[in-house]
Amino acid sequence: MRIATWQKQEYELVDASSGERLERWGEVCLIRPDPQIIWNTPKENPLWREADARYLRSSSGGGRWEMRKPVPPVWKIHYGGLTFRVKTMGFKHTGVFPEQAVNWDFAMEKIRGAGRPVRVLNLFGYTGAATLACLSAGAQVCHVDASHGMVTWARENAEASGLAGKPVRWIVDDCEKFVLREQRRGNAYDAVIMDPPSYGRGPGGEVWKLEQQLFQLVESCVPILSREPLFFLLNSYTAGLSPAVMEYLLGVLVGRKFGGRVSSGEIGLPVAETGLALPCGGTAVWQAD
């Protein structure tokens, strides 16, 4: 498992027990549900009682935030030179997936070591963390997400990080349709980052189901890779889609055409209270030799 490491004052997974995470986001302490936490270890850390807010699941679906103390509507955390505006959102989210820092580091290292201009396509770009990482490393980025609100948030994160003037295109569009249009335009990218949801809808009401459409989407991306692509990074939080399946998919679609090597595995976060690691998702990567 690849473990994301943050500075403690920016983000910390303090403890994990009884289906919940106890997390410190800067100066704000949150308790959020996590179905993978099936163990019932003692909640001895006083922050369990002192947390600023807790997300409560509803038996009918969804849930709500229980505010125990005043929480800012928006506050900032930092990863290296990157700044993220975070907030308590619906469905327990904050706007940042901290375990993805391992993939930000990977992308920045590959871009800086390329020795040439790099064009990156970030599909399902959400609030722009991967986009910011690539921009800070010197790449030109096309950021695509179906949600106008998420793209606006990503732009705000870029401004907060001092990256607003970097070469980036902010696109609100259905990712599948955008990739097909890029094929017709003859555009090419040296790297693709893809972080698709398990289920969602496009701006026109299009239904997205990961298991049914992932192969087709990755296959559609192959024609828009440059002659010498750098990497293809695929993330998933879908329980039924293992990292090994994604590795195989990249191997048959990208590896057979461009050579290189494919790898996969879980990504996770260190739990301060136990010294163990909480798995938080899966990643598969194709990269050039």
List keywords for this structure.
7 helices; single chain; Rossmann fold; 289 residues; alpha/beta; Immunoglobulin-like; 17 strands
Q: Assign the CATH architecture of the largest domain.
A: 3-Layer(aba) Sandwich
Mean pLDDT: 94
**Quantity of strands, as a count:** 17
Tell me the span between the first and last alpha carbons: 22 Å
Rg (C-alpha, Å)? 19 Å
Shape: globular
Helix content: 25-40%
Low-confidence stretches: none
CATH superfamily of the largest domain: Vaccinia Virus protein VP39
Give the CATH topology of the largest domain. Rossmann fold
Can you offer a commentary on this structure?
This protein is α/β, with parallel strands linked by helices and 289 residues long. The protein has two domains: 2-92, Sandwich (Immunoglobulin-like), CATH 2.60.40.1180; 98-287, 3-Layer(aba) Sandwich (Rossmann fold), CATH 3.40.50. The protein is 26% helix and 33% strand. The protein is built from seven helices and 17 strands. The strands form four sheets. Strands 1-16-17-15-12-9-10-11 form an eight-stranded mixed β-sheet. Strands 2-3-4-5-6 form a five-stranded mixed β-sheet. A two-stranded antiparallel ribbon has the order 7-8. Helix 3 (129-136) links the parallel strand 9 (119-123) and strand 10 (140-145). Helix 2 packs parallel to helix 3.
